[in-house]
Design goal:
This protein has six helices and no strands. It is mainly alpha-helical. The chain has one domain.
């Protein structure tokens, strides 16, 4: 696997982070810098840790997770998407502070990094520099998460974007099982 291939893999894995973070950027109204950093760090760390898990625990965990990985991703994104759609129909009070809590961060981290687990298995099979790969993947995911968050935050005043963010997450859920 060439360096270019690893960078492209990092960007491909970071797309889910970008989209999920974009959706969060649509709803975050206060403490945007702190919440964007929490989200980006979570995405980068999960995307970096999952290949390590896949690499070192290939035969144990992946055997069980692989069968259900697309359904795990489907469930997480579907629930988050439905939550966004539901919240888009509610009357907003401008004093409400949206914040990203640990439960939300964990769900987003897992939901966006299942594919990274599989990449770690591939890394073991093709014998690449694991530390270089996870650094590139983690940095790409971190950066793309920030880009997604701030893009969503900048255009959130466009009507129905929170609803569209929910639809996007549901689309990712359906895409995971196809």
């Amino acid at each position: 696997m060439s360096y270019t291939d690893i960078i492209l893999l990092g960007l491909a894995l970071g797309i889910d982070c970008l989209i999920a973070s974009f959706s969060q950027g649509l709803i975050i109204e206060k403490k945007r810098i702190i919440n964007s950093m929490k989200l980006a760090l979570t995405m980068g760390i999960f995307q970096g840790l999952m290949p390590i898990i896949g690499y070192f625990v290939t035969s144990g965990i992946f055997y069980y997770v692989e069968k259900y990985s697309k359904w795990i991703v489907f469930g997480i994104f579907l629930i988050l998407g439905l939550k966004f759609i539901f919240e888009s129909t509610q009357t907003k009070n401008n004093t409400v502070t949206c914040r990203i809590n640990i439960k939300c961060l964990f769900a987003l981290g897992i939901g966006t990094s299942i594919d990274a687990l599989a990449s770690g298995i591939n890394f073991k099979l093709i014998d690449v520099n694991l530390w270089y790969c996870i650094t590139i993947i983690g940095l790409a995911s971190f950066t793309m998460s920030l880009i997604g968050f701030w893009s969503g935050n900048r255009i959130k005043n466009i009507p129905n974007l929170e609803f569209l963010g929910g639809i996007t997450l549901i689309w990712l859920a359906i895409k995971a099982i196809l």
